[in-house]
Design goal:
about 550 residues; alpha/beta; globular
Amino acid sequence: MAQVPGTFLDGLGVRTWCGLALRALGRAREEIDAINVYPVADGDTGTNLYLTLESAATAVEAVFAGYETEPAEPSLQDAVRAMAHGALIGARGNSGTILAQLLRGMAQVLAGEGAEPRCDGPALRLALRRAADSARQAVAHPVEGTVLTVASAAADAAERADGDCGTVARAAYEGARTALAATPAQLSVLARAGVVDAGGSGLVAVLGALVEACTGEGPGEAVRETTAQAPRTLPDAAACAEAAEDGGPAFEVIYLLEADDAAVTRLRARLDSLGDSLVVVGGDGLWNVHVHVDDAGAAVEAGVEAGRPYRIRITHFGAGDVHTGGPRPPRERAQRAVVAVVPGQGLAGLYAEAGATTVLARPGEPPASGELLAAVRRAHAREVVLLPNDAELRDTAAAAAEQARTEGVRVALIPTRSAVQGIAALAVHEPGRRFDEDVVQMTSAAGATRYGEVVVAERQSWTTAGICQAGDVLGLIDGDVAVIGTDVTTTAETVLDRMLQAGGELVTLVVGDEAPETVAGRLETRVRESYLAVDTAVYRGGGQGALLLIGVE
């Protein structure tokens, strides 16, 4: 891993920091999950922090990938903006949302107007202070003894440090460690469980990685020392009951929101009246909203009134869990499950109805391996069939599968390249069959399904069908552009005709929100009138990116 001098932090240093922090959280994830008792003892803080940081690191890597053919490298401003944006859109859970705001606060200083191309000690001090203050402001009702306390202590210690980036980073790290050790004295639920704050422990790991990125020297056994009080299993029922305090809300609701500042101010007040653990982070028109409520629908409706919510995640804490004051009984593993990546809410519902655990992929923002691994864990099965439904996700899915295998889960990756191939595979899935036989049948069904899609070109480019202009309608067959047109329905008909030239028994149409309302009816009529003995199935895909997905089996 490349190192940067201790005197400054540049774009490469930010990349190094993200990689080191992701590695540190990966090592500490299980221990942090185990000490998670506040605000809800649901044992996922370490995982949520990891997934949030993974999204940040992926965004930074994407910026560097864009410079591969250039002699220059991304600037500090480019790197920290990407880091903050990636964390914002990928934030998971209460602690992950706060971590996203901490990174955003740092980016506001390091990428602000007039900022230097390299971050020195004084700039890092300012960035850490802005991070701590902005995170505290994002939480509706800050509580001491949490990650907020640890972040403030890190900023305080940094302000007392005099020196270069490495000196300031190490001071912040040591200040955070000291504050973390004191959290049980500030929050009774931590003292009763005999643990330090889980979110704060994750922040210490991230700051330890910052020290290493700035100096090239590791900070020592920070995470193991700070989690030394951690039990190897979740705390007892008494600690969980105190975490719930009079019985807490039943749902965690998280979504990204496009809205202006005034609308978000009103949204904060509305959500604060509905529940607790409210954290709203972001700015410049894009926000990440996190809240615990009893009425999940009302929380989403409040987002709709404020702007455009998407990537909506609703988690039910479950009957007999921490909110009822009793321990969560261990859930029996299922024998087999299917985990699938889907490009739209409509397909997510379709796959879920068929029994699959889904991972929603927003257009242009593919899920990372950690998110797929989390879905495999959520499926809670001894055997898992993984459907990436995108050729570019094959390596990501393979990494998630490999990690799941190390955890004792038998995983088969079927290299589906489109959601319509996943539908075909799911249609022949039989949990009662032997695992190998089921995988063979699903793989065969997916492989026998040709896939097409109709999209709108975003820019001028060369394609296998010629040069397209921005705004042209493109018809793709098996991943290659086969048709360039101007009308969605006409292009779709041409694509369908070409796909059916080789024969077929079933046409599957998945219609996106932005497709013309008449396109599905026109294609159904064409199949009925021109292709005897071919059936058609139509589904609504929602905001799936493509105007239309077509499958022919």
